[in-house]
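Retro notes, structure queue

What went well: the backlog is down to a handful. What didn't: a couple of records were mislabeled last round, so from now on we paste the full input next to the output in the thread. Example, using Beclin 1-associated autophagy-related key regulator from Dreissena polymorpha:
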Amino acid sequence: MEEISCLVSENQLEIDLNELIESSVGLSVAVERCPLCSEAKRPFYCQRCVNEGQFIHSYATYPDSYSAKHNKWDQSKTTRDHFLERFKSETASLQRRIDKRNAIDECRRNIELLKQSIEASRKLTLQNKASHDNIRRENLVHYSKGKKHQEKKKRIKEYIERVSETIHRKKEKLAQKCNELMALRKSHIADLTTFIFPVIEVKSERTSQEMATSDDVLQELQDASQTAYVHGRWINASGQYRIVAPTLPAHGEYSQYKIMVARAAEDGATAAGLSSPQSAGNTIIAGLCYTSQSVAVIAHILNVCLPKKQCYSEFCYCNLSEKQFNKAVARLNQNILYLCFSQGLDPERIEPKHTLHNILELLTHTQLG
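Corresponding output:
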């Protein structure tokens, strides 16, 4: 193991033993590693010398002591600091020039950036100005168009008002003409039904003896006498309507003509040969003929096109079969119903098979014409 020895100068060769004994430091056994060789072999050394740095390597490999090296390091550090301060003082002007040059370059860069920004702003301003000019021109065009549109709107409004006034006057005139036409049609229909084809309801009148009699049996007998069994059902044959001279049953059941045709077929002769002009069958034929003519004339006066075409002379033939007769009556009733509905007659007042009843309801309608 390398030993640590203390270097004593010539002035320290004579050290008093008492001073060493009285010293608070004294000698101590090394229990830590050696500061130089990093070994721990329990050498003897002076604690004060170690603290003061007065020790060297035992083999004299490193001749300088720790304290000398420390002093040398302090001197080098001081010299370094001196040279550093000197360098700073000598290069201060150069550093100032460099800093100023850097500041100038930075200002130049900032100026260049500002120029670029100003140029971009100028271009953007020019673009915005051009866009503003375009928008302004478009607004002027729109404004002029808007004025034209307002004038056109005003003219259209005035035209609509004039047309509305004209239409209103024409509507009033049309309503007046319609009322006049309705009155004229009513007048013509009234003349027709008064002088040419008068239609009236024939009511059965009781004698004084019947009025005085209150016997229920007689009343039932009278009702039974006014009821007939036709084609499997009982019908009331008391009410009648007269058109010109012939009369037609109110119920619209023209069985008398059918009976007349059936008898003619059984006897092998025509209905005209077996029946007199005053017979019930011929009366029905005459009444239906007058009715057909009156319906056609009324439709012509009212300017209504009938759905079924029917000839005036269709009921003038006395040799019509029952099937032909039923078809002719059905067409006549259909035309009458169409005529009633065209004039706005209430459907509840109409009976589909009551021929003259429907005509009377039509003639008494307030909105006729």
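Agreed that this is the format going forward. Reviewer comment attached to the example: The longest helix spans residues 92-196.
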